[in-house]
Specification:
Structural class: alpha+beta
Number of domains: 3
CATH class of the largest domain: Alpha Beta
CATH topology of the largest domain: TIM Barrel
Helix content: 10-25%
Radius of gyration: 24 Å
Bound molecules: the ligand CCC[C@@H]1NC[C@@H](O)[C@H](O)[C@H]1C(=O)O
Number of helices: 9
Strand order of the largest sheet: 25-26-27-28-29-30-31-32
CATH superfamily of the largest domain: Glycosidases
Number of strands: 32
Strand content: 25-35%
Largest sheet: 8 strands, parallel, barrel
Length: about 600
Amino acid sequence: MEKELLYPLTNQCRFDQKLDGLWDFEFDRESQGGAQHWTQQLPDPIKMPVPASFNDFFTDKDSREFTGDFWYAKRVFIPGSLRGQLIGLRFGAATHRATVYVNGQEIRSHEGGFLPFLADITSAVKFDAENEIVLKMNNELHRDALPAGDTAVLKNGKKMAKPFFDFYNYSGLNRSVHLIATPQNHVVDYTAVSTLQDDAATVHYTVTTSQAAASVSVTLRDEKGQVVATGNGRTGDLVVQHPLLWNVRDAHLYTLTIQLKANDQLIDEYSDEIGIRTIAIAGHQILVNGQPVYLKGFGRHEDSIYAGRAFDLNVEMRDFELMKWMGANSFRTSHYPYDEEVYRFADREGFLIIDEVPAVGFKMAAASFLGGLDQSFFDGDWTEELYKKHLDQITDMVHRDKNHPSVLAWSLLNEPDTSSESAVPYFEKLFADTKALDPDQRPRTFTLNEDDTFDTSYCKQFPDFYLLNRYPGWYHKWGYEISDGEAGLRAELDKWAASDIDKPIVFSEYGADTQPGLHKLPSVMWSEEYQIELLQMFNRVFDSYDFIRGEQPWNLADFQTVEGNMRVNGNKKGLFTRDRQPKAAAFYLRKRWLDIDPNF
Ligand SMILES: CCC[C@@H]1NC[C@@H](O)[C@H](O)[C@H]1C(=O)O
């Protein structure tokens, strides 16, 4: 059960109850919780909302910045009607690591704060009674963990997060917790991969069940509930005549229903929405259903006022409204996999997603920007342990998200240091070990940072297409010097053009920090006018090279970072403010995007 990541649902065979709301919460400042048996009950807890990051609720800096062990607890009644089923607790995200206890019994631990995990609690449950659910969590950053960073110990003995990345180390139960129950013999996983024929489509499916007994049948229904294909067996092909394809910003979904039966008795049923579409890279084109697509969208963050990194349906609703208003058709889940609801939004709205793991901060220059070492990250003695966690989180990301039609590609790292040959063995293994994970064989990529150019990166041979993060006009050649910035960018792109590389390039980051309401004529940096000028420069460049097949400025909205002399209460490169109101550049870019044919 522990590697199952299917989206929870309730039906005649399955049970799902969200455990969101107020939990007991307590910092373990002396890391004594284990010795003092907090696993049974927290000594002096406060109430803490779930899902939420704990940080921004507090008014004292020691609590907001708390780094170390902290505990959650909740008493949950489990009805006797579930007796005989497998009982699980599914945590959407526990950032960054957690150990789960039920009625004082240790169940399991999990490392990785941005993907779900399931704890099989069947053996520890008391039915028709209250059960004590307790989590011991920790939010320390390490070079051999994702996202990469350090944990400093100040002279006063307090720990402090030192991220090698530019987003705040929001921590806690950031996504929903579910109490679930499934039959002993149940659907563990499924895959659905489409191929297109003239006026038909074939959905090749596989179904994994927890036990070999029982027969499997599969039914595919259209949006009107009409059965369009059926199948029998744990694998097979569903042929759909005149399919309504899933297209960018013109999404059509089908409902796949899997039934498990023994002696004609229904044992388990699982349903999910799938889209019939194909993804391919052909030369410098990104193809959806064989048609070229030009990506217009954003780098984003799961970030909002009050609840930090918590998934908030209200914020997500507003963000999709803003992206649709802008004429966008895509986004990257920078720099970590987002809540499952986000992919379901994108499936319904026809948005393409570049799905990214939190392999961010793999660059000592970033650390030196924050006081780290000046060496290649991949020379570190931490890379062996890091690799295990990195591959584990890519595996879970693909396992969780593989059936979403919106997922276009997998971004395996953000801005790693590839300007040293020591990166090559790590990348060779990573791209080899991840090749077979996705049954749909989507393209794999990573973002190339400013220092990893056509000339300086040792890892250009690995990605199926390129994501470039480029900041002329902001981190260098800024202000009145932006014309030199444009010349330098064009010089690099001319090298890509002159090379024998024929793969798409998507600009996955570019932008300028902008203080909303700051106006200056002529412009100065940080003014709204300058943000537009910078975007105009990049757009002139994008329109000069036909192998540039996407533009995703940084960022959709302003977001929280660590304190720093280059951050004004966070990163201000948003086209929208943190409370999701437009800066002038949003109106400029909206006009550009609404005038562009998305398939040009
Ligand atoms: C030159 C690196 C730029 C950097 N890229 C990663 C993002 O997570 C940061 O927010 C962005 C920034 O500094 O604005």
